[in-house]
Amino acid sequence: MGCFMIALSLILIIAGIITLYLGKLDIGRLPGDILLKRGNITFYFPIISCLILSIIISFILWFIRR
Length: 66
Description:
The chain has two helices and two strands. By secondary structure, it is an alpha+beta fold.
C-alpha cells in the first residue's frame, strides 16, 4: 500500500508540473471550451479539451493492451 501511495503522489506531482507549463503555453483553450466571466467570478470548463484528452488516452491504452 505504501508503494502505491508513493507512486500515486509522484504521478500527481508530475501532472501538476505538466499542467503548470501547459498553462503558460496557452494549450488547452480550444474552441468549444466554456468560459463565463461575470464581474470578478470566472468559470472555465474545458469540455472539448477533456474529450480530446480522453480520446488520446483511450487510444494509448488500446494500443498498449493490443
